[in-house]
Amino acid sequence: MISRFPPSIALTINVSAQDNGLNPVYKVQLGEITYQKGEASKKLTASKVLGVVADVVEGRVTDIHNEEYIPLATNCVKTGLTHVRRLQTIEADEVEDAKYLVTATLTDITASRKVKTYDRKDSKGREYKETKTYYGAVVTVALNFKNLQSGEVTTSSISGRCSEYSLANSADEAIRSALGALAENIYEYYNEVYPIRANIIERGREKKDKTKELYIDVGSRFIGEDVHFDVFIIGQVAGRETRKQIGRIRVRETLGDDISLCKVQKGGKDIKAAFDRGDAIVAISTD
What we know:
Layout: E1 9-18, E2 25-37, E3 40-44, H1 70-82, E4 87-89, E5 98-121, E6 127-147, E7 153-162, H2 171-193, E8 197-203, E9 206-207, E10 210-211, E11 213-216, E12 228-237, E13 240-256, E14 259-266, H3 268-277, E15 280-285
Parallel strand pairs: 2-4
Antiparallel strand pairs: 1-2, 1-5, 2-3, 5-6, 6-7, 8-11, 8-15, 9-10, 11-14, 12-13, 12-15, 13-14
Helix pairs in contact: 1-2
């Protein structure tokens, strides 16, 4: 998922950290959005990307880069970032303590079309040819996170795709499907980059030698149902934290801002043994 692409659209974001115990929240400021192609450039304000995209004739969106979709694509990038659990969109007057400068470059908005002919037979055995048209699309964005203190830059390339053998009936539909996938892939990727860490605070239902349910100290403020966590025993070696994975859990129900009931999906026996020993146990989100 990490790669380099030529620049075409720049989305500038300032990010600053807000201490939130085990799960610091990074404030995100969305700035000017610039579209660049060769020597030409177009500037779009943040408000314009929310506008309605003009209708596009099918023939103009097949096998080419599609400038008509830039506002919608940019909005999908914003949507993806704002749904990351530990990123928070803020106003311009809140960026004094920015820790990161984030730039996003849309590098590809491309549709494709394939036409295939199949030999068929009707109910009477007569042969005929059937022609089908398949549409696909890909939208790609390169996101750069620059640490303003160290200067270190981390670049991640994330794509949204619509398969050529999907049910898309046009290039326009394929591109829109790919854009939806892009927004989803952005927040899924950065939810993994910035995982939620939870303490396992109490055992729940048990059966024989296995823990079936347990409670964590993270709730609806950060997560919803069906989020998965890996479970670890925490230790110390030479003053450094060590982790030993012993299981996996899924959030069954959020019971408040800072508490959730989880179902043990894997490692129930090891988790119960860790409880019985009084081990320090934590859970770290995986999606």
